[in-house]
Amino acid sequence: MLGSQLIEKRIFLDDKRGKRELEEFLQTQDIRLDENAEYIMAIFNEDELIATGSLSNNTLRSIAVKPKYQGTSLLNKVISHLIKEAYQKGITHLFIYTKPKSVKSFTFLGFYEIARVKDVVLMENSPTEIQSYLNELSTKKVDGKNIASIVMNANPFTNGHKYLVEQAAKENDVVHLFVVSEEASIIPFDIRYELIKKGTKHLDNVILHKGGVYMVSSATFPSYFMKDANQAINVYAALDLTIFKRYIVPTLNINRRYVGEEPYCEVTKIYNETMKRILEGEDMEVRVIPRVESQGRAISASFVRRLIKEHELERIKDFVPSTTYEFFRSKEAEDLIKKIKSNTGRH
Amino acid sequence: MKIVKRALAGTMESSDIQIVVEAGEGIEIELKSSVEKQFGNQIRKVIRETLEKLGVEDVKVIAIDKGALDCTVQARVAAAAYRGAEIKENYNWEVIK
């Protein structure tokens, strides 16, 4: 029975014994331990682990309650604990991935469904958040026959990105260009956005948007930002694109999405394949633009970062617009270049 | 008292209520309760009265109730409102009785 002996505890992954116990428990529930979790809590009945949940940035993950105790208020305890922790960090817009059969339980805990794909449902802790985002977005709606969209991270903005945007601008009345705003890349959002803005200034039918939380963010497409990227990537990609199709497309009357061909990054490759599968239909077309080559190789932002890292800043001139090049030569970029040189991550 | 940020008080455990406040226009209350049928209106009334006593005029409240008593509702609303208004001293606890 459950009583006053219940203990809520934080679990640290460097505590080997605690980690093993947690892993074993999650395994019985068919849930994988999320190594990216920033905060993990568990509830013990005396010495027995009976419920757990974790927090990774703005998403609640790896939530499980021992079957014997399901239907008691353990889930409420776990979620309340994690919500409180998130609020203390100043994170108040929260997401949760769950299975269809658990949607009802989370609805009782104040979560609302955004989208579902097969056996995964994404929910958020607000009944109005996505609508207010769309209301804001709709103020930038422009009429036209062909309305294109691009989502890019541009880390940093290269000639490849520029070509992609130019193609879209040429073939459409309007291009809605969304810049991934998640701060998971080595180059901060403000700079990525600014370089895109400068590099597309000559195109008067391009409208720039901050991508926000509903587009290739750690909530909608965590694979893009995780180390063990291939885990569940198909599902996440499908969810991200389902949200795009269901909410963004009708708000702006988009009928095309442009994407650069991806020869290198496996995650992006799968994402692009999924894009065709989910988005393409009667009113929507996906156009894959081949990569521009320079000096016999496809231009990529990661190659540009590598050049910077390897002290070959001058060479990036062949791969980026003059606006990007000038920025990296400016005093303003000094700290960033230092950061790039010491970076070991994927982004 | 002006709500300047989204703030939270309380839990979703039995006999408690989780209150989230954020900036809004007028007093707007969104309530989910396990005892909605019997006590939904009473809970809304207590939330509203507590806010009025605190002088909060523009706020959106998202409340998830798990059977809290009135005094618990008052305490949670007051705590959330103070946090949302970033007030950290001179609390008026008279709103709870």
From TrEMBL, chain A:
Its EC number is 6.2.1.22. It is an enzyme of class 6 (ligase). GO terms for molecular function: [citrate (pro-3S)-lyase] ligase activity; acyltransferase activity, transferring groups other than amino-acyl groups; ATP binding. The gene is citC. This is [Citrate [pro-3S]-lyase] ligase. Acetylation of prosthetic group (2-(5''-phosphoribosyl)-3'-dephosphocoenzyme-A) of the gamma subunit of citrate lyase. It catalyses: holo-[citrate lyase ACP] + acetate + ATP = acetyl-[citrate lyase ACP] + AMP + diphosphate. Pfam families: Acetyltransf_1, Citrate_ly_lig. It comes from Anaeromonas frigoriresistens. InterPro entries: Acyl_CoA_acyltransferase, Citrate_lyase_ligase, Citrate_lyase_ligase_C, Cyt_trans-like, GNAT_dom, Rossmann-like_a/b/a_fold.
Automatic annotation (TrEMBL), chain B:
Keywords: Cytoplasm, Lyase, Phosphoprotein. One of its GO terms (cellular component) is cytoplasm. GO terms for molecular function: lyase activity. Pfam families: ACP. It is found in: Cytoplasm. The modification O-(phosphoribosyl dephospho-coenzyme A)serine is found at residue 14. Oligomer with a subunit composition of (alpha,beta,gamma)6. Covalent carrier of the coenzyme of citrate lyase. NCBIfam families: citD (TIGR01608), PRK13253.1 (NF009726). Belongs to the CitD family. This is Citrate lyase acyl carrier protein. The lineage of its organism: Bacteria, Bacillati, Bacillota, Tissierellia, Tissierellales. The gene is citD.
